[in-house]
Amino acid sequence: MSGHRKRLHSLAIHTLALHGALAPFEAVKLSGVKACALQPRFSELIAERLAEPTGQRRRNPETGKSAAVLRLTELGRERLAGGAQ
User: Do the beta carbons of residue 32 and residue 15 sit within 8 Å?
Assistant: First the structure.
């Protein structure tokens, strides 16, 4: 993973840790990073089992589309704490 991508990956996981369950568009708004850069990191977090959908969906007021709300998994919290790699 490139350095830039690693920083965005870290930003995505830390945003979920700091703010709790969020839809990716909410995390983008909180971070100030462009959506095209940050949103794919959430798919990576899910693929790595560091985040998971809560079952809720929220409507993006800018696009009208709904998005899954994500939360950290136990593995994601361990990764942040410096545990499982």
Answer: no
DSSP character string of the chain: --HHHHHHHHHHHHHHHHH-SB-HHHHHHHHT--HHHHHHHHHHHHHTTSEEEEEEEEE-TTT--EEEEEEE-HHHHHHHTT---
The residue type at 52: E
CA–CA gap between residue 36 and residue 84 (Å, rounded): 28
CA distance 50 to 41: 11
pTM of the complete model: 0.88
Task: Tell me the C-alpha distance between 84 and 64, whole Å.
Answer: 38
Tens digit of pLDDT for each residue in 13-70? 999 999 999 999 999 999 999 999 999 999 999 999 999 999 999 999 999 999 999 9
CB atoms within 10 A of CB 54: 14
